[in-house]
Amino acid sequence: MTRQVYDLCGANDVRFSPYCWRTRMALAHKQLDAEFLAWHFTEQEKLKFSGSRTVPVLVDGDEVISDSWRIANYLETTYTEGPSLFGGERGAELTRFTHAWADAILVPAVARCVIGDILERIELKDQAYFRASREERFGLSLEQMTERRPVYVQALDTALLPLRVCLRRQSWVAGEAPAYADYSIFGVFQWARVISPEDLLTTEDPVFEWREKMLDQFDGLGRRFAAAS
Amino acid sequence: MTRQVYDLCGANDVRFSPYCWRTRMALAHKQLDAEFLAWHFTEQEKLKFSGSRTVPVLVDGDEVISDSWRIANYLETTYTEGPSLFGGERGAELTRFTHAWADAILVPAVARCVIGDILERIELKDQAYFRASREERFGLSLEQMTERRPVYVQALDTALLPLRVCLRRQSWVAGEAPAYADYSIFGVFQWARVISPEDLLTTEDPVFEWREKMLDQFDGLGRRFAAAS
User: Fold this and answer.
1) N or C: which end of chain A has fewer CB within 10 A?
2) What pairs with residue A15 in β-bridges?
């Protein structure tokens, strides 16, 4: 039975969830195939079987796992013969803080920069849900946030400082080779790349170079998904 | 020959460098003794032998190592029989991002909150250097920063979010047991604790509970140094 991932989908089949991108990269790292099923914000009924209201959801034989972090840990402990996602026994625990930073700091910082672009690139049926949920989350209208974009881009630049410092000292967040610490962060940049024509990084930033290398991983898996224009 | 650490010292022998605290905890973790030599901001000539202008500097037989991160890696690779500071082969690389966050985000966020208190707790001979260097770094007078403290305390609270998320999910930053990822962050809180009467954490914060547990480590090593009053 083919492994399946429920994958957030916008208009024109754009696959733009930062969380689903983590799972896509983790599966590629483990050299595991999967079918990525297009799922839209308003298709709650299609996820009911999983007990989760959000994607990614991985269906692997009889196993149903949701949440990108839990999926990564499932893959790590189930497919022990593949390359390690965390590197070493305590690797998952040591990756936790980096993952928490990506979720708590990077996701909202990037969201503020690209949120207006998302609205334009999701299907009409999903737009009302998206607008209402995001305007509630951020306490501003999408149009107000788009107006403030220069301020948000500057704030993102500041927030990226620890990543920049880390990548000045080693090639990958995980060290000598990319691993889940990298995918956890890369998912957020790939989300921005496929959904927004705004480039959030300048070419002299070590984070830019690292993102380019991430796009080259697994025979250019990330790059095969077009950047928004 | 006794191992020695050059350790930043204020008035009344207060030992308040976040970086020196990392080294103190790392040595205790490795079960290694050391003599901590009081060093003051204006005693540059005493460090000349090391090639470093800042502490900690570790002298271990013929080895002279400066910079808290380099010292931790030196201890890890030199004293392989003691408990690991990083946990596993790739542990140091996986700890790098957490360490970079502590340096790039946490240190300046805490500094803004406690900077006025530091001036009052260092020796007279060091005050002119401290004022000039810090006012240049932050672009504000120490008095202006003290006035803005409520804003800085709020900003620190926000900056702590990834640490809070991490500690809601596992007991220590490094996972099931404390390791260098914890010491790297703890050093910054211990600095604040010994130099400022302001408590920066509320008791319901998971970071507060974690700091209490850190103070208990190694028979209460951190707690043996009095909190500022």
Assistant:
1) C
2) A9
